[in-house]
Amino acid sequence: MEPTTTTPPEPRSRRGRRPHGKVRRRLAGALALGIGLLSVGALYSVVEPAPQTAVAQAADAATIAKGQDLYNNACITCHGANLQGVQDRGPSLVGVGDAAVYFQVSSGRMPLARQEAQAMRKPPTQTFDPHTQEGADNLAALGAFVQANGGGPQLPAATGEALRGDDPARGGELFRLNCASCHNFTGRGGALSSGKFAPSLDPANEDQIYAAMLTGPQNMPKFSDAQLSPQEKKDIIAYIKSVSDGNNDVGGSGLGGIGPTSEGVIAFVVGLAAIVGFAMWLGAKQ
């Protein structure tokens, strides 16, 4: 008699349990992801300085709005409502940047006293006097408005003596290569064509010199950072200030700073005049 084997009951099909397991895993993953996102969001809200950014943006908007009011009161007649310029009155300001605004307005060249070949330097108006806090703030606001609407070269963050480089000797070499043909070897200026001239650099402050190199006012060329690096510009400023403060007359008297051979030229002229005078005296005596 053959032994009988009892067949154990079949276990529940695994196929019936897999869908429930997948659903659970998906729900757990979604829950973990949600908790992670909520945690990151909470951490970001704590770390992110959103209020400071909003305040900064609001301050920038207020500065630009103030600059627009100043522009409408002082500049719109000659430069147009959209900075496009007005024929026979003033050029377009699109692309000049806040550097040009600072140079022209802080040096008193703008607004023009009258239409002429050369914009003459004069004391700035009280509204834009850079020596007062109110004037400096107004200058910054006007520049911000022109920059926001037209773009262009911007002034560096450094100001004043911080714009002087630490190598005036190198600055002197660069100045003689790029600037002396118009401004003279010591920045005393010189005549140009059509009633224009390169002005003396003595009254210009560091910010104005840097802005002039960036923007190229009048006949002056523009010097981008590819032509003269920011450090080279600062070295040039250091050289200009070293020869304009009256403490760099190595040969003695500066004699007006008309060049490195000024004393020799004057000695030659005086000596030649003395010789001619002596010769005439001898001839008259005979």
From TrEMBL:
GO terms for molecular function: heme binding; iron ion binding; quinol-cytochrome-c reductase activity. It is a multi-pass membrane protein. It is found in: Cell membrane. It comes from the Bacteria. Heme c 2 binds at C179, C182, H183. Residues 62-150, 166-244 form the Cytochrome c domain. Heme c 1 binds at C75, C78, H79. Keywords: Cell membrane, Electron transport, Heme, Iron, Membrane, Metal-binding, Repeat, Respiratory chain, Translocase, Transmembrane, Transmembrane helix, Transport. This is Cytochrome bc1 complex cytochrome c subunit. It comes from Pseudonocardia dioxanivorans (strain ATCC 55486 / DSM 44775 / JCM 13855 / CB1190). The lineage of its organism: Bacteria, Bacillati, Actinomycetota, Actinomycetes, Pseudonocardiales.
